[in-house]
Amino acid sequence: MSYQVIAIAGFIYIIAMPIYVVHLITKSKKVGYLATASFLLGLLIHLIGFVQRYKEMYAINQSLLHSIPITNLYESIVFFVLCLVGGYLFIEWKYKKKALGVFVSTLAGIIISLTDLLGVTKEVQPLVPALKSNWLLAHVTLSFISYAAFAVGFITAALHIVVASESKKSFKYILSTFLLGFMLFTFISVIIDILYSSNPKTVRIFQSTLGNSSAVVSTISWIALLSFILGFWYIGDKIKNLLTTLRIDSDFLEEITYKMIAFGFPIFTIGGLVFGAIWAEQAWGRYWGWDPKETWSLITWFVYAFYLHSKFIRGWRGTKTSIIAVLGFLVTLFTYLGVNLFLSGLHSYGSM
């Protein structure tokens, strides 16, 4: 089955992470080559699983275009990670810097693993009528390519804020470490919310942690959140020193952030908004209906438009624009997963 092959790819991504760490510590070229080779192996197996999934879809739908495996939450996650890994490996090849591999391999492995933890359905099913459109391929494919670009931009933007901060007492350093700690806590909290909810479609964020009816659980959750934030605040300067040693400076991180967003924004505009509107007109008889997914997609577009506007028109540089990039990906993440898991709408076919 294709999902078993893709699970193996996710495991290899996780294995690649400590190899990248060893390379960063030892600076051994041989270990660096091994890290890249393991990531490439994971990507190859991932591609094999993706093709196998396509064959399974084709056996049911008997259509070349309508069998592209990007039609439900599981398949979209698989395709997103495929784009993320492919995009990172291109950056590594172009810039000859492997430090980002630690973060990308960890993210890729965890996301694939979560499809099992969250109980995301992996069954190959016939397409619902709304998905039987030739615009599906363009709309969804381009959307997730842009999401992957925004994800890489988020990683480099978050690191840039830490690297560019002069001291732990600076507002930017505190803000960046707060966001990283809060994101990690929220990520874990959402998993707990879904695991302990009898109906994932009615789950509310933080209902099992910060908003728990038990005062003990709620208090422990608040302590855990504070610990996450303080933990990132404490290790932030160590990450900064490591990146400086590896010649990953703030200019490099800012450049990659800008290029990823400049690459992803027009793709998202055309694929996510324009092609999505055309597809909506064919499927539901209107170009725009303020569905939650449509609304949050527009909010995402405005955030990244503001990022590019601040760079081109206002001439902003440094951590100000990186903070916008970080916030932009938080909005993107909610547009991608939050809307499907916590809100109802015409895009409900992308839920659990």
User: What's the average pLDDT?
Assistant: 82
Spans of at least 5 consecutive residues whose pLDDT stays below 50 are none
Largest sheet: none
Helix percent reads over 70%
What brief labels describe this structure?
single chain; 352 residues; mainly alpha; 10 helices
Secondary structure layout plus pairing:
Layout: H1 2-26, H2 29-61, H3 73-95, H4 100-117, H5 135-164, H6 171-195, H7 215-245, H8 250-284, H9 292-312, H10 319-342
Notes on the structure:
This protein is mainly α and 352 residues long. It has a domain at 1-127. Helix content is 75%, strand content 0%. The chain has helices spanning 2-26, 29-61, 73-95, 100-117, 135-164, 171-195, 215-245, 250-284, 292-312, 319-342. Helix 6 (171-195) crosses helix 7. The longest helix has 35 residues, at 250-284. It is globular. The two termini are 20 Å apart. The mean pLDDT is 82.
Summarize the structure.
The protein is mainly α and 352 residues long.
